[in-house]
Design brief:
- This is Putative 3-methyladenine DNA glycosylase.
- There is one protein chain.
- A hairpin with a 6-residue loop joins β4 and β5.
- The termini are far apart.
- By secondary structure, the protein is α+β, with helices and mostly antiparallel strands.
- The chain is built from 4 helices and 8 strands.
Length: 216
């Protein structure tokens, strides 16, 4: 059986480009998570670009560490990190090997496996909230550090795979400051590197960075 056009795998060449080309082009693409209980598919509606050593907002700005090592690897691989001691977030590595750029997957619409996603996101008030935000998206797809380094372009069985989906028309993709990024990296005039599908209800609300207060 021939897969429909929107369910064809994205080739590695798609990710082997500058991150600012890849990020807006990911809006409307489909990410599939294969689980023992069945697949869950999310149509991406919001992403953020991070440009490694050229970007003070990037985890790779100060170089390679054990945490961000996947960002320096081949394009099309998944970089998963743990944040605030409770949440996972996932990214897709871009550019040639060694560039350490990646796209954070911020939000999407669950288009397959909704019942499975609901079981993982019991606090969601409705289906539009299942993957509305990067931690919610990772939770709905049951993505943790064990999937760090997964090849989303691999042939054969893989727990995460990117499909062509239906790219959003460029005039429907908006851009602005990244959410919760401190300092210059959060300056929307310098880094308007958050991209989203205009007026889509699954896009997360923008929040500026708020410094965390230390408990006395």
């Amino acid at each position: 059986m021939i897969a429909p056009p929107d369910r064809m795998p994205l080739p590695r060449e798609f990710f082997d480009r500058p991150v600012l080309e890849v990020a807006p082009d990911l809006v409307g693409r489909i990410l599939v998570r294969t689980t023992p209980d069945g697949p869950i598919a999310v149509r991406l509606t919001e992403v953020e670009a991070y440009d490694g050593p050229n970007d003070p907002g990037s985890h790779a700005y100060r170089g390679r560490t054990a945490r961000n090592a996947v960002m320096f690897g081949p394009p099309g691989h998944v970089y998963v990190y743990f944040t605030y001691g409770m949440w996972h977030c996932m990214n897709l590595v871009c550019g040639p090997e060694g560039t350490a750029s990646a796209v954070l997957l911020r939000a999407g619409e669950v288009v397959e496996g909704v019942e499975l996603a609901r079981k993982r996101r019991l606090s969601a008030r409705n289906d539009k909230e299942l993957a509305k935000g990067p931690a919610r998206l990772a939770t709905a797809l049951e993505v943790g550090r064990a999937l760090d380094g997964t090849d989303a372009c691999a042939s054969g069985e893989t727990p995460l795979r990117m499909l062509t989906g239906t790219p959003v028309a460029p005039d429907q993709v908006r851009s602005g400051p990244r959410t919760g990024v401190a300092g210059e990296g959060g300056n929307g005039d310098v880094h308007p590197w958050r991209f989203w599908f205009a007026n889509d209800p699954t896009v997360s609300p923008y929040r500026a960075h708020v410094p965390r207060r230390r408990s006395s």
